[in-house]
Write a structure and sequence with these properties.
alpha+beta; N-terminal domain of TfIIb; 2 domains; 4-stranded antiparallel beta sheet; 2 helices; elongated
Amino acid sequence: MSHASHSHSRIIAAATMLFSFCITSSTNAASIRVDDFSDGIAVVHADDECCVLIDKTGRQIVALKFDDVESFSDDLAVVKTNDKWGYIDKTGRLVIAPQYEYAFSFSEGLAAVKRNGKWGYIDKGGQMVIKPKFDQVNNFSEGTAMVSADGEWGYIDKSGRSVAPYDLPYDVNAALK
């Protein structure tokens, strides 16, 4: 058996184990989905509340029960429980308690989180480093993130300081017609 088919078999085994876990803890485990690997870990989902973290050999790291679990980025994954979002580490340990209306994956050490209808950014310790004041946000890339406040778009740096306005040189709506 090749290494690739051996790993595939282990992933199938992990999915089967997840299915069994969900059958014993839930009334209906109808579908299984395996996310792509990210930071060396894949999330195997069954229905909307069961998942298993597996490594690249297909070995189960931990079984979890959350409403949603996103892929890992910067060693943390976004999780949802009771309509609030937080973060777990690669062992499945909750490291930032679910407290946000919505949350993005970490990128360059910061993650966008929504609180009281506005977006800000936290660090991996859960400290708010850029206060929630934006209507829309994007992840950081090359040290900047595109954000919108009061209908105006621009780029900020990791301290939240505006570094460049975002002016489109053409009419987007006209281009889409």
